[in-house]
Amino acid sequence: VDNTLGTFVVVDNATLTKSRVVCVRFCIYSLMGSSLPKSISLHSKLGSWEQKIDFENCPLRCEKCQGWGHAKNQCKMTISKVFREKHPKDMDK
């Protein structure tokens, strides 16, 4: 896997020794503003395929402000509403 996901940091021992063949685990650093992909394309001598990715221990990301560390229902970002003064209808008509 190249640096598509972020900067490679470390791989777990079971992945290194190939003692667990059902999955691989490694740690990456990723930019906070970038979105994490749901899958990546892998290529080998046996062919190419799309591999689903599960991220562990990621901080929450708010769908409202795109900030990290809180969910949408906990977001402190305020949305300002613009109110227009209502004028009475022209009574001369």
Which characteristics define this entry?
93 residues, mainly beta, two-stranded antiparallel ribbon, 1 helix
- What does the radius of gyration come to? 24 Å
Quote the distance from N terminus to C terminus: 74 Å
Order of neighbouring strands in the sheet with most strands = 1-2
β-strand amount? 15-25%
| Count of DSSP H/I helices | 1
* Unreliable residue stretches: none
| Mean pLDDT across all amino acids | 80
Short description:
With 93 residues, the protein is mostly beta strands.
Any overview of this molecule?
- It is a single chain.
- The protein has a two-stranded antiparallel sheet. A two-stranded antiparallel sheet has the order 3-4.
- Helix content is 4%, strand content 23%.
- It has a domain at 7-58.
- A hairpin with a 2-residue loop joins strand 3 (39-44) and strand 4.
- The mean pLDDT is 80.
- By secondary structure, the chain is mainly beta.
Topology:
Blueprint (H helix, E strand, L loop, with lengths): L6 E5 L1 H4 L9 E4 L9 E6 L2 E6 L41
Antiparallel strand pairs: 1-2, 3-4
